[in-house]
Each structure stands twice: as structure tokens, then as C-alpha cells.
Amino acid sequence: MTYLQKIIQNSYNNLPNYKKSKPWSYVNHGVDLLKNEDELNCYLAAYGKMHEEKIYTALSTLSNIKDILNENYQIIDWGCGQGLATLCFLDLLKEKKIKNLPKKVTLIEPSKEALTRANDYIKSSIGDSLEINLVKKLLDDVNINDVQSTEKVTINFFSNILDIGSVDLKKLANLIGNNLKGEQYFICVGPMNATSTRIDEFAKLLNFSEEQIIGNKNGKLKTTRGTIKLLVIKIEGEEIEIIKSIYYPTMPKNNNIMHILEKKLQAIDPNILNSLDRVMEYYKLVVELEQLKEPAVDDYNYYNYEKNENNDFVIDLESNAIFLNIFNVNRDSIITRWPKDLNITLEIGIEEKKYPILNYTYLFDDIKEINTATKKVKLQLSSFELNYGTLSSKFEKDEEGIDELENLIKQQKTVEEVINILKIELDSRLTFDNKLSFALSSKNPTLSQIYSELRKVNSHSVAENSVLSNFLFNKSIDNKLNSFSENDLIQISNLDDSQKNAVLTAFNNKVTVITGPPGSGKTQVISNILANAVLQNKKVLVASKNNQAVDNVKSRFDKEENSGFFLRFGNKKILGDTTLPEINRISALKSTLLDNAIQLNENQEKLNAVTKLKIDNNRKLEQRDLRQSELPELKKILSV
After folding, report:
1. pTM value?
2. Would you kindly state where each structural domain of the chain is located, as residue ranges?
3. Which of 117, 98, 12, 4 is nearest to 52 (CA)?
4. Which end of the chain has less neighbouring CB within 10 Å, N or C?
5. Which residues pair with 314 in a beta bridge?
6. pLDDT in tens, 413-460
7. What Cα–Cα distance (Å) separates residue 202 from each residue in 35, 181, 199, 462?
8. 87-103 per-residue burial string, b: 16 or more CB within 10 A, e: under 16
9. At residue 137, does pLDDT exceed 90?
10. Is CATH 3.40.50.150 what the domain over 3-248 is classified as, yes or no?
């Protein structure tokens, strides 16, 4: 195990259990600046392995790396994050037994927390002898003095940073152009997004042509929207060289999705809809298409298939009598009131368990009239959709990983090639029994509930200039309500940083959406919101379609405070069994209550004093951190 792999594993181990399944969801898929230990660990757990694989692949293209590193050299890690690219490079030195270390490493990163970690990790990997230059800046704010090339060879790392839209590529290229001294190597890797063309834009600004960038691949970047995932280039004086370029052409169009989309659009007459209705039809259509990625299916029945001259799957529905009967009952309007669609799935096996990995959905209207005695079902391999549920839950793939896998699969011509890709990307042990799984499919329950809610939104239920109305029409939303800080709030139970931020956001904004998987502490957050609402003399309504959810919130809050601040309302039974007895209990207490205004004022003064002390201590801690960050520069000055 490499040093970087140990770091990634430790970060994963240090996460709370509820964050381990989807760590990317707690760092906004790696887009936002990382602000605390938890977020740093989430990022490494979600993307560390992917970063290592990309950087290692890029470095392996330098076939003469030992010759390159014979000279004095330095590293500039642009947008370094936690220093993953540099750490991967140092691991490669150990693997190849290269003893010549860089004379200097420059780390550029706007997040103080990430930059500190990068510095600590690199020192732990290689020792304190290495000169490390820390530049806490956004890339657009970096100047020539921050990145001066002082050695014969400079290795520049751009790991998942050029794809960030806020980076001014032209300004960055100009800065690099003024610093092109000696041999300059550029290691550029990025996400495999269909619309990402920023690596090739950056290369063009360094005077590389499109033909050089994509080599002998077909198509043009601007017309096909293909994606450069990896680019390794060398510049020395007037000589420029593409060492390696990995280019993905655009994915083939999914004809099934396009067919379903066209069919749905034909059923909508925009001329009879008002502006709000047209917006809602759009959202409903998005939900319907999302349901194709993760359908709810009945029991699977298995079919052998043939391949025709066009390499299509050809299936005879009558070759499986059991499913044929199920299929015919489904399309019999006398027996079946709500017919289902036909789902065809390619399942893979791992250790005697099967997992749906690719789906294809025939709408009921497209299949209901088929004469199974004379006509066979045909479909193309490229029309299958990846099953997002399986990939995220079983194989822990995030959205970027699923997009990359989808692009790889869409380029394959045969099912054997697809299975090989799945073995490489998912699990080398997986098997495929050369059968397709047929089942009737209904709408995904979760998405069906969302669809049902969308149907209720209309001009009668949405007030003009309301937050919802402004959101739907992409108007500016004045969501600001208060300016509370963490010091203004109390905690009735321990909260982590993300939970504290959720409570604070709820008080400072008119509308706040808090999401998280089961067990992530949402009920705990709600309890703290309720407690602070009582302290701020606010009114609160806790509502849910699920009675158990409301009971859980009430029970959790009552464990901390049972003075009767909140009453449980609901149906007649709840009113009779719970609400009225509680009102009577509180009414009976009124005569026994004492005026404790003096004690309350004293407690408030104590709370204010503690809050002031907390603010002072936080300021001192910030000053300490600032002084610690200045130590390396002071040591450098004193050593001269």
C-alpha cells in the first residue's frame, strides 16, 4: 500500500458511519472549498483513489522519467487541495527507487485547512529537508513571484482544477508563459464530463493546435463536444510536444430516451398552458426520465437472446411461457387497470448474487400491440441505461464515476467488451450468464411521490413573487432572514460542523433544505432548531406525511425539554389521546408556576458572559493559527 493509499484509508476510517456510504454528498461533489477535518476526510474518501489513478496514469506516460529527474527540478502543484498529485509523485519515486528529490515544492491552494494538510502529509512522507513554498491563494490571484521557476526542470500538476469554471484560463496561461524557463512538464487531468473542454482550451492558450491535442482521433472538440480527460505536455523554449492525450469522443445518442422524450412532448400542448404550467411540465418530464434509470421492477424472468446482422439483441417473448403469461395479463385491459412498462435488464453476478447494471424500458404503449407469435423484441446495446441505484449503493460510485463508466460503455460495440469494462471498473470477479432479465416495471416509489407533488403545483397554489414562484422562474430570491452566528445559538445535544451549519442556515434563511441519509442526524438537527426557536421566541410547525417522523422529533425533543413547549397535533385519535391531555396538564401547572424573571435575567447574563468568552477564545485561536502559518517563512529568514 502506498503512502497516499494509507492516507485515503485513514480518512475513510475517521468518517462517521453514516458518511462512509456517500462521502461525496458532504463536499458538494468536490466543488466547494474544504473548511474542516470532516470535509477533508470526505473528499479523500470520495475522490482520493480516483485522483491517484489519474495522476499515476499520467506520470506513467513519462517513459524517460529517470532521465528527466537526473537534473535539479521543482514541482508546482496548482490548486493542490491536500497535495494528492505531489504525494502520488513522491510514491512513484519510492516505487522506482529514484533518490533525487525535488529541490522545491510549491503548493497553491485557497483553503487554509487543505493547504495545511498537504504540507503535513508531504513532510510526513519525505521529511523536513524538502523546501515547501505555501501559497494560500486562488489561481487567479497567483503572481510570478509565487511560482518562479528556479531549476532546470519544472513539473506542473493540474489535478481536477482546470475544469473549475471560475479559473481564468487566459490569465493562467499568460502567467505560465512568463515563467517558461528550462524544461516544463504539464500534467493535466480532469473529470470525464461530456461538456468539459477546459483542458484543451488551456492547451490551445499554450499554443497547441487541436490536431496535436486529439491526435488521430476522429471529430473536432467544438463540434462533437468530446472530452480531454488527460493531457501530458512538454515545453522547452520554442519546442512544444504532446506526450500523451486521452480523448473521449461524444457519447452516442440514446435513441430510446429520445423516443420517450419525443412521445411525452407530443402529449403536451404548450399553447393551452400558462407560464407556470409549462415550467411544471418540464419538471414532471425530468422526473419521468429519471425513473428510467432506476425503475421499480417485479420478479425477473430470464431469456436467451440472439444477435442479428446489426449486432442487435433479438429476443423471442414466447420462449418463456411464465413471463409470456405475465406480459399478456398486463396488457389485458379487462384484468389490469394500471398496466406497467416492460423492463429489460442486463444483470451481473458476484459471488452468487445478481445485480441489475444496465436497464432498458419499453413504454407500455410501445409494446402493448406486439404480436408475440410473429414479432420478436429487438434492442441495441447502446440504448441501455446504467442503473444508478446499483452503482451508488453496491459499488459506491459517485456521479462523476458513473458518468465516466457510462462514457466507456457507450464506446463499446459488443456485450463482451462491455463486460470486460465492467470487470475492470467494478469487480474482476463479476460474471455474465449471457441472458437478459425481463420484468414488468412501475415508477420508482420515491420519484412517484415527487411526481405526485409536482402535479399539485399550479397558478392557484403558488403566490406571485413568492420564494417558490421566483425559484421556478429563475428570478432573484431574497432568502436572507437573519444574521445569526454560531455564538447566538445553543446546543441541546452535540452537533458536528455540518449539523451546526444546518441549524444556523435554518435561522438565517427563509427557506432551507437539509438532506442526509438515514442515521445522519437530521432529527438531532431538528431538535436543536426547535430549542433555538424557543430561545428566540419563535413559532414552529413540524409537519410530515409520516406520523412516525413527527413522533420521533417530538420524542427526541421531550427527552431534552419536557415543559410543554410543543404540542402533538394530528388526526382525531391523536387529538384525543395526546393533545387534549397535554393541554390539560399544562393548564393545571399554571397555578403552581412561580415568577422566575430575576433568575432568567441572571442566567441570560451568564450566557452572554460565556458567549463573549467563547468569541475571545476563538479570536485567540485564529491568531495562534496565523502565527503558526508564518513559522516556516520566519525559519527560512532566520536560516539565511
Report:
1. 0.52
2. 3-248, 295-443, 479-562
3. 4
4. C
5. 306, 378
6. 889 989 988 988 888 889 999 999 999 988 766 677 777 888 888 878
7. 28, 19, 5, 45
8. bbbbbbbeeeeeeeebe
9. yes
10. yes
